[in-house]
Amino acid sequence: RERERERERQRSEEIKRKDSDTLKLLRAELKKAQESQKEMKLLLDMYKSAPKEQRDKVQLMAAERKSKAEVEELRGRIRELEEKERKDSKKLADEDALRKIRVAEEQIDHLQKKLTATKQEEEALLSEMDVTGQAFEDMQEQNIRLMQQLREKDDANFKLMSERIKSNQIYKLLREEKEELAEQVLALKTQVDAQLLVVQKLEEKEGVLQNTLAGLEKELGLRTQALELNKRKAVEAAQLAEDLKVQLEHTQAKLKEIQTSVSDNRSARERESFNLKRAQEDLSRLRRKLEKQKKVEVYTDADEILQEEINQYKAKLRCPCCNTRDKETVLTKCFHVFCYECLKTRYDTRQRKCPKCNAAFGANDFHRIYIN
């Protein structure tokens, strides 16, 4: 795509250059036509100011006809160039190129308007030339009449001779200007030939571009087919994803239900285990009571019974883990009592569970108690 964009940019730049070159050529030709028009006006002014003979008038009219024919040829070539530019603009498909061609066409229309204005001015000048020709003929008749009077006056003859010399000089100047115009026409012909060569090259380039466009259109067709296949796959994947989402939602709901049931079961089991431990403790208490009654029946002496009870109470006050140190600390989770050293060693060795009920405890879950 980047290469295609670069190619399109190059095409638009080439078109811009060509349009600018053609516009420059048209403007140069317009300037030349305007200069020739100014020169013709000067000639008309000179023609009005200075009377001449019929031969000079015929030569001037012939020169004017030649210049008119050359101007018409130039106009025809300009029209041909405009038609070629329009054909080139029709062949170009890019929007940027079309816009630029429209701008060029507007400029060409503006130049054509100027050309029409110059044509009108030239027609006005020609009409003025005809009027001046008639006036010249009238002046000749008046001159014939005046010649009879001027023959009597020598001073007037000298003046007429001087005016004739001036007219001859003007005629020489007009010839030189005619030669310069002929050279300009030759230069214009060479420019037109160069433009024709450029147009041929442009046509060749157009053929190459058309071939590349056909290849690109084929590639576009293949890519559109691939895009349609990908779109279908994407739609199928989206449908599968929606189905999977629905399944996930169902499974998540089931998982939540299972988790709630598991948590309920855990809480029930914990309650049952707590009740079992309480029942075991009650059983142990009843057994101790039975043992006491048995001992009372066995030992007849009251001192021995008291001593035995004292030993039992001392055993209750001793730590059940080590059976050497007294109970000093209580676990706030299960309220079982042990010595501080045993609980500290269990906490340090990461055996952080109660020795009796296996309830987990932390650093802030055991506290010292003081039995007086």
Salient structural properties:
about 0% strand; mainly alpha; about 375 residues; three-stranded antiparallel β-sheet
Task: Characterize the structure shown.
This protein is mostly helical and 372 residues long. 84% of the residues lie in helices and 2% in strands. The chain has six helices and three strands, in the order αααααββαβ. A hairpin with a 5-residue loop joins strand 1 and strand 2. The longest helix has 145 residues.
Q: Number of DSSP helices?
A: 6
Q: Would you tell me the structural class of the helices and strands?
A: mainly alpha
Biggest sheet details = 3 strands, antiparallel
By DSSP, the count of extended strands is 3
Biggest sheet: strand arrangement = 2-1-3
The run of helices and strands is HHHHHEEHE
How is the quaternary structure best described? single chain
Distance between the termini: 94 Å
Overall geometric form: rod-shaped
Specify Rg, calculated over alpha carbons.
Answer: 62 Å
Which percent bin holds the helix content? over 70%
Mean pLDDT: 79
Measured by DSSP, the beta-strand proportion falls in under 5%
The residue ranges in which pLDDT falls below 50 over 5 or more consecutive positions are none
